Amino acid sequence: MRVHGYRVTTGDDRHHHTFGSDSWKTPICPNCGTNVHFIFNFELNDNKLSTLSNDQLDSIPMVSCLNCSSYWSTQVFKIEPRTREIIILKQNDKDNWLSDEEDRLPYPLPFTKVKLEELYETDTPTGEWDSDKAFEDFGSEYICRILGEPLFATEPIQKKCYSCNEDIEYIATICSEDFDSEGLVHEGFSFNFGESFLYFYFCKFCSLLQTEMQST
Ligand SMILES: [Zn+2]
Ligand SMILES: [Zn+2]
User: Fold this and answer.
1) Looking at residues 40-52, what average pLDDT do you find?
2) Which residues neighbour 175 within 8 Å (Cβ) at sequence distance 6 or greater?
3) The pLDDT value given to residue 140
């Protein structure tokens, strides 16, 4: 069965999907010493996300520090629903790069309600289709896409769970806003962490979140 994919856009569709805030407790980034960003939270009572639901979680938080090189290589986070806490299981940052102070995103990110809108046909190029339009709209019309076919910047990502080695579910991808499209997630706010795509994966057996980065 083909899984539908969605653009994540601002607005309220009664499911309480959100961007920003600090409603999950995130760890301190080992590289830059500030809280890992809590980026999006998706409520699993939304039928559109039924493929991700397990018996442990009510919602899936998507987290990563966005101000340093910590997300350039694979990250693994454990989601602890009882304490609403995120724990770092793996992070191998060897670059130890920090973005310039004036470019850093704040913690917490500003709170915004978001909703899910079906991906457009052009968002999921297949076969011979040209992917230019998909990449053009991603970052100029929306900054997060959830489920559906991932839009890979380079080669497809094949992932197994860090803990149980089972296949792992693709959840979502985020990218920065284009400079002339600022305010897509929050009015007067610029969501920019550089020219990369950050892919989130989820093991529903272990409640682990894994991330991979690609850039064009
Ligand atoms: Zn960091
Ligand atoms: Zn697992």
Assistant:
1) 96
2) 138, 139, 143, 144, 196, 197, 198
3) 97
Residues that place a CB less than 5 A from ion ligand 2: 161, 163-164, 203, 205-206
Per-residue model confidence as pLDDT tens digits over 104-141: 999 999 999 999 999 999 999 876 568 899 999 999 99
Q: Which ligand is nearest to the CA of 66?
A: 1
- Nearest ligand (C-alpha, residue 30): 1
Residue numbers of the domain that contains 117:
5-215
pLDDT at 148: 95
- Ligand at minimal distance from the CA of 164 is 2
pLDDT tens sequence across 178-207 = 999 999 999 999 999 999 999 999 999 999
Spacing, Cα 190 to ligand 1 middle (Å) = 18
Measure 165 CA to ligand 1 centroid, in angstroms.
27
> What's the structural domain count of the chain?
1
- Write down the pLDDT at residue 157: 93
The pLDDT of residue 125: 87
CA 163 to ligand 2 center in whole angstroms: 5
- Euclidean distance between CA atoms 145 and 135, whole angstroms: 12
Burial (CB count within 10 angstroms: exposed 0-12, middle 13-18, buried 19+), residue 87: middle
Question: How many Å lie between the centroid of ligand 2 and the Cα of residue 121?
Answer: 32
